Amino acid sequence: MKGIPFLEGKYSPTLDLYPIECKEFNRIYPFYDNLREGRFTTTKCKGCGKVSFPPRVICPECYSEDLEYIDLPTRGKVVTLVEKWGGVPIQYTPPMIGAWIEFPEDSPVRHYFSLLYNCGVGEVKEGDEVQLYVFDVAPHPIDKGKESIMKERVYFGFEPVKKK
Questions:
Q1: Segment 83-117, tens digit of pLDDT
Q2: In whole angstroms, what separates CA 145 from the centre of its chain?
Q3: 3, 14, 101, 118, 124 from 157: Cα distances, Å
Q4: How far is the C-alpha of 31 from the C-alpha of 54, rounded, in Å?
Q5: How many angstroms separate the CA atoms of 32 and 30, rounded?
């Protein structure tokens, strides 16, 4: 699980970079539910057909709220990448490796910039194949009735496809 190590399990909303994903706080919660199933998805307007990424609750083209979730590719190729050693957010350990990823031509989303996980400096190069990587992040407290409960969360990035 990724979180904020120096807080030793205590929750700090001001240092939390991950979204509150539960149904009570987030209208794109199906996106996170789909991630839990290993699916990378986004929304498509049932009226005009506009595909938006990240997922939306209202179509930016025709303002319809009649949207459906569609699957996106879970694999792509690295176009270019960057290794960031300074200015890394508090919950990350340098270097942060990010990649501009190209998806197959038939994908409604052609490119996406993502952090890469499970790889070190120099282990990924342009043209390498990467795949969706879903991981647990620190749970988020929410009030439900008179109780506070911890809601589990996930987030995503990409990782190198292991060569056989």
A1: 999 888 877 788 999 999 999 999 999 999 999 99
A2: 30
A3: 15, 22, 11, 10, 14
A4: 9
A5: 5
- Give a three-class secondary structure readout of 37-72: CCCCEEEEECCCCCEECCCCCCCCCCCCCCEEEEEC
Whether residue 151 is predicted with pLDDT greater than 90 in this model: the reply is no
Give kind and range of the element (H or E) at residue 147. Answer: strand 147-160
* Alpha helices per DSSP H over 4-151: 29-36
Q: In which region does residue 21 sit, left (phi positive, over 0), alpha (psi from -120 to 50) or beta (all else)?
A: alpha
What's the token pair of residue 47?
Answer: 């009226």
Q: What sign has the CA pseudo-torsion 24, 25, 29, 32?
A: negative
- Between CA 12 and CA 18 the distance in angstroms is 12
Secondary structure class of 131 (helix, strand, coil): strand
- What is the predicted pLDDT for the residue at 25? 80
Residues in the chain: 164
Global pTM value: 0.85
And the tokens for 71? 């699957």
Tokens of residue 25, six digits? 């706080």
To the nearest 10°, report the CA torsion of 39, 43, 48, 49: -20
